[in-house]
Amino acid sequence: MPIPQEVARRRTFAIISHPDAGKTTLTEKLLLFAGAIQIAGAVKGRKSSRHASSDWMDIEKQRGISVASSVMQMEYRDCVINLLDTPGHQDFSEDTYRVLTAVDAALMVIDGANGVEPQTIRLLQVCRARNTPIITFVNKFDREVQEPLNLLSEIEDHLGMDAIPFSWPVGMGRHFGGVFDIRRDRMRVFRAGEERRTENDELIDGINNPDIASRFGTDFDKARDEIDLITGAAPPFDHEAFLGGRQTPVFFGSAINNFGVQEVLDALVDLAPPPGPREALERKVQPDETKFSGVVFKVQANMDPAHRDRVAFVRVSSGVFNRGMRLKVARTGKEIRLNNVVSFLSQRRELVEEAFAGDVIGIPNHGVLHLGDVLTEGEKLQFTGLPFFAPELFQAVEVKDPLRTKQLRTGLTQLGEEGAIQVFRPVAAGGALLLGAIGQLQFEVVAQRLKSEYGVDARMMPSRYNLARWVTAPDSKTLQKFLDSNAANIAYDVVEAPAFLASSPAQLRVVQELYPDVTFHAMREHG
Ligand code: G4P
Fold first, then answer.
1. Is 284 one of the annotated binding-site residues?
2. Which runs of consecutive H residues, i.e. helices, occur in 272-404?
3. Cβ contact 63:301 at 8 Å
4. What's the gap in Å between 520 CA and the centre of ligand 1?
């Protein structure tokens, strides 16, 4: 198939949620409906991932599991769907955020009882900053959950975009009758599902159909009134507004019962965009160009800490990838030959023969590929937009044996390049290096890897800082003045970008008011 057609049939999205909202369940059911698996329950060791403990063996196990299951590819209705997982739980880390840079849309799963929860909000902020279109699935309507109208306004408040219901629940919990498909004007009657997909759902046409009204009684009357209300009050669905991240289509259902899953899968195909152009410093890269380009958005260390091989996750931006082709790392000019590149077809890791824009390929390597690296057939390209997020947790790090200081620096540099942690060098004399993270687990992984891979026994100590902001100013004099006056709170990151460190939001606010010319950034782009 010619490249433009291959690109047009790709959909690459991330699935985001707060732990326990039902992301794993929905993922399984999406695979089930796409025919990628036959029986749900096969995706991953759910129990072990849910009760993520910080025990190192568990971390290792989970990393193994997550390499295999963090990207899944399936075919549905002639489309190739790439689903990228965003780990929640304790292993929430910067990786989670960066995955969102590799997708063209996001599917947000919300627990109908809990509404929009903190972990989701953090991810949503990144989607919003990038205008990523979001499809919303409100889960668990087979339970007593919040009123759908409340959920809708909560979604609107948190997303800062219009929530446009495509379906509407009739009842909930024990009285859950099904969902009414507003656009097709028909009701899909709820039936508790099993592990397998069933074909023969009952559908009843027409919102004014007396059969529905008599069968579902007051639950249906209420749903009909609500549908009237929202279709009267809400703006109509506008595809452009969705693509620009200003509207989100909302679906209701129960993932565990396979209910509402088909609608979500269809929405991905019908509404979510195919891969679009990507901005590089040099030029805009179109997905259907003939030459290959791709960017490393995640680097994952191998399960076996004795071997330093890593898997670089590359999102294809343009052209065709063929097994065995030679590509250049734009940063170093180094050529690599790609024979054993893996793809992620459902949950099996297999060798990839061909990949197009939107696909994700995994390249095992020994540190040749860094986060943000661009692979091309020779052209020098640097894609913009791989963000580094201001850490929210800090620890000072020192080496127990001063003779291993050099190894500590080497280890931290490499782990920093891999994106496992952010490293800051405080200006203050005698200040130990500071590690910054988004998730607590990042510190534990780094301490363990420093030991096993670099032979460094590192001591992690609490730090008085709780937030960081990269600082810029319109001219270098203003910036220097700020840096000099606040030296005690300034640290430089690995690319020597200065950051202001604060122990509380209040402290940050005070400084922001004192220096109105200085801009404080919660995100820094790679490069
Ligand atoms: P996560 O990946 O977002 O963390 O969530 P996961 O799918 O693991 O689901 C969290 C819990 O919610 C699981 O229950 C799961 O069975 C349940 N769940 C998912 N979808 C639905 C739904 O539509 N309705 C209801 N009632 N429950 C749902 P668990 O008891 O914690 O685990 P398990 O024993 O079922 O595996």
1. no
2. none
3. yes
4. 40
Q: Please report how the helices 148-159 and 210-233 are oriented relative to each other, as an axis angle in degrees rounded to 10.
A: 30
48 annotated among ligand-binding-site residues: no
Residue 515 to residue 477: CA distance in whole angstroms: 13
Q: CA angle, 515 as apex, 513 and 517 as ends, to 5°?
A: 115
How many angstroms does the Cα of residue 24 sit away from the middle of ligand 1?
A: 8
Q: Where are the beta strands (DSSP E) in 161-215?
A: 162-165, 167-170, 178-181, 186-189, 203-205
CA 346/CA 328 separation, integer angstroms: 29
**Residue 296 in contact with residue 312, Cβ under 8 Å?**
yes
In sequence order, the 6+-apart residues with CB closer than 8 A to the CB of 429 are none
Instruction: Tell me which DSSP letter residue 246 carries.
Output: S
The closest-lying atom of ligand 1 relative to the alpha carbon of residue 143 is: 26
140 is in an annotated binding site: yes
pLDDT for the residue 41: 52
Determine whether the shortest distance from the Cβ of 25 to ligand 1 is under 6 A.
Answer: yes
Ligand 1 lined by 43 (C-beta under 6 Å): no
Kindly state if the Cβ of 95 falls inside 6 Å of ligand 1: no
Instruction: State in Å: Cα 142 to ligand 1 middle.
Output: 12
Q: Is the Cβ atom of 86 under 6 angstroms away from ligand 1?
A: no
Is 4 known to sit in a ligand binding site? no
Cβ atoms 111, 20 nearer than 8 A:
yes
String of b and e for 391-428 (b: at least 16 CB within 10 Å)? bebbbbbebeeeebeebbbebbebbbbbbbbbbbbbbe
Q: Is 521 annotated as a binding residue?
A: no
Position 481 scores a pLDDT of 96
Q: Does ligand 1 come within 6 angstroms of the Cβ of 246? A: no
Residue 292 and residue 289: Cα distance in Å, rounded?
8
Mean pLDDT by 10 residues, the chain (527 residues): 95 91 88 71 45 41 52 88 78 77 95 89 83 96 96 92 95 94 92 71 90 91 94 91 94 93 93 94 94 91 61 92 90 85 54 85 84 92 79 91 88 83 86 86 86 90 92 95 96 90 95 96 73
17 is in an annotated binding site: yes
Q: Which of 18, 20, 49, 109 to mutate to test the pocket of ligand 1 (most atoms within 8 A of CB)?
A: 20
* Residue labelled with tokens 């040749």: 368
The runs of H, that is alpha helices, within 70-202 are: 94-99, 118-129, 148-159
